[in-house]
Design goal:
The chain has 3 helices and no strands. By secondary structure, the chain is an all-alpha fold. The longest helix is centred in the C-terminal third of the chain and has 22 residues. The model has no long low-confidence stretch (mean pLDDT 91).
Length: 110
């Protein structure tokens, strides 16, 4: 994009990307279209709540430093730093959204 050898037609997130403000979102043309990518930190299901809270607090603090925000921004990512409950809800929503498609396509993790 920066070299001008390709042209961005749209971003696949629900709204325009802050790092490409002049590029429309697919949802501008196809309402509800959203195939955002996310990364997160996961641990064993039996982790003590106080440890989850500590790791979450420290991780969110790190993700929200200017250095990390700047680096992620250069990679085209936006730091969020949600709570464990918000992240669990995101995982569940994506599972409900993509699960039937994955099952219908017969996809399996390898």
């Amino acid at each position: 994009l920066q070299a001008g050898t390709v042209r961005a037609l749209a971003v696949t997130t629900a709204s325009r990307a802050p790092f490409l403000p002049d590029v429309p979102s697919m949802s501008d043309t196809v309402p509800g279209y959203d195939t955002e990518v996310w990364w997160g930190l996961l641990g064993p299901g039996n982790m003590p709540a106080d440890l989850v809270a500590k790791i979450s607090h420290d991780f969110v603090a790190a993700v929200n430093t200017e250095a990390v925000k700047e680096r992620l921004g250069k990679l085209g990512a936006i730091s969020i730093g949600s709570t464990p409950n918000q992240f669990a809800a995101k995982i569940k929503a994506d599972y409900e959204k993509w699960g039937p498609i994955i099952k219908a396509a017969g996809m399996k993790a390898e």
